[in-house]
Specification:
358 residues; alpha/beta; TIM Barrel; 2 domains; 7-stranded parallel β-sheet; 4-stranded antiparallel β-sheet; 13 strands
Amino acid sequence: MIQNVVLVALVILVQNKKYMKDIKFDFNDVLIKPAIMTDISSRSEINPFDFYGFLPLITAPMDTVINADNQQLFFDKGIIPCQPRGIESGQQGFTSYSLAQFKEKFIDQDDVVITSKILIDMANGHMKELVEVTKLAKEIYPDMVLMVGNVANPITYKKLSEAGADYVRVGIGNGAGCLTTQQLGVGYPMASLISECYDVSCSLKTPAKIVADGGMKDYSDIIKALALGADYVMVGSIFNKAVESAGQCYMKNFNSRPTKITQEDAAKGFQNGYTILKQFRGMSTKEVQKAWGVEKPKTSEGISKFQDVEYTIGGWVENFESYLRSAMSYTNARTLKEFCGEVQIIKITENSLNRFKK
């Protein structure tokens, strides 16, 4: 009898350990561990830019973040522009296409002139067809710089890398404008997803760049995403809160509905201390589907809301660069190659989080 009880207890213990191993984590569950010693004496020794001189940031292809009018501003601040569908980007940025649009333009035609990097913009990047189209596109256009996704499975990241993708967007349901995980129950905690995709990338001959997309709430989330192994972070909601973002501007009225105002008036109002609002919406909302010409919009997996304007793009970027340099100095990393996926991460309890979260 005692032996049976002990055996049952051991089985439960083993099962619990296996369960604990399978538990995934997110940004609030981890911290970046400082190096034992660092020989970096000044943050000026640190280079937080990629090979082309960009910060490890890409704009989310959202019509309330970026458009033709503000693309140059993002570019000038060292952020890689990624335009929403229907707007051409320059050579340094990404132009977005749906899978059907991409096939029609690049697969079904010959002698297409490629004028920018390309994003195949899909909510569900786990479709077998995406892998097939990616492989075919890279065979036809070996010099095409191609980003695909989104995916929320490390093995899917592997398959798209092996198909020839240059960048893979990872993350489903985490974004501020996305309801996929909330409504469908489908997803993958972002910090675990990045970390596991990075582990997979280390085993590949030509791994795709990992682009962490969705759910960044503050500077530390972005920096943690890089520390966990992301090469770039795609930012939407945070950039929407900048006065120069592409979102429609409104003046906040405390006793009535917000008043629609111009971008110029919003900039002046923000400078003078008025509360300015920006429209922010997910790209799977019905209003966006209608704008894309969808006759029968599908059930929305996105939201539309107002956000307070909190900063200028320049002010935010200045802070981000400073914070990233500082984080890299704590970990003795002079370059992004030494920082992304190469520093130590520690898991913490909720009590630990609450002690320092202001």
